[in-house]
Amino acid sequence: xxxxxxxxAKQLEKALGKLGKADSSDDESDGIxxxxxxxxxxxxxxxxPWIEDVASDRAEYELISVGISSDTDFFDHANxxxxxxxxxxxxxxxxxxxxxxxxxxxxxxxxxxxxGKMSDDIIDDVFALRDARGxxxxxxxxxxxxxxxEVANANGQGALAGYKEAKAAGVKLKKIxxxxxxxxxxxxxxxxxxxxxxxxxxxxxxxxxxxxxxxLCHTESVVEDDEEGDDSE
Length: 233
What we know:
The protein is mainly α. Helix content is 59%, strand content 6%.
C-alpha cells in the first residue's frame, strides 16, 4: 500500500502541475483519477491462489469431520466449488478496492481544485484520507485488514462447499452461526436463528461467514440424528 501511495503522489504531482488555475471542475478530477495507475490494485489478482487454498482446506476439513472419505468424488466437487469462488472473489475484490480508492481520491481532488489549493496541499489531503475504520487508504493496515477479511470469507465459503457436498453424499446436516464473545446485533441475530438448512441464508442475508468487514464469527455444521421414534418397550 505504501509503495502504491508514493507512486500515486508522483502521478498526482505531474497531473496537477499540468492544470491551469481555472481548471477546477469535477471533470478535471475525473480525468486525473481515471488516469492514475494504482499498481497495487492490479496486484490484488494475486490473492486468487491463496483464497482458493484457504477455501479448499476448509471444505476438505468439513467433509472429513462428518466422515466423508477423501477417496470420493465429493472432495473433487468441493475443490471445484472453492476454485470457482476464488476466481469470482478475486475479480470482485480488484474492482471493489479500485472503485472505492478512486472514489475517495476523486472527492478530495475535486474539493482541493475548487478551493484553489496548491498541488502539494492536495496531495497532503490525499494522504490524510481515512476509510470508515480510520485507516489511511494507502496504509499497510488497510492491506492487512483486506487480507484478514478475505481469509475469513474464504473460510466461510469453503465451509459452505463442504456442507453442500456432505449433504450431496447423504449426510443429514444443517449449519449454525457461532459468534465471538462480543457479537454485534447482526451476528447475534444470525446465531439466534439456530440450525438452518445448508442452502438457506441467515437473517443477515449471508450464507456463511462473514456478515460484515471485521466479522470474527464462523459457521459450523450440525449433523441430525436418525433416532427419532425409537420405542423399544
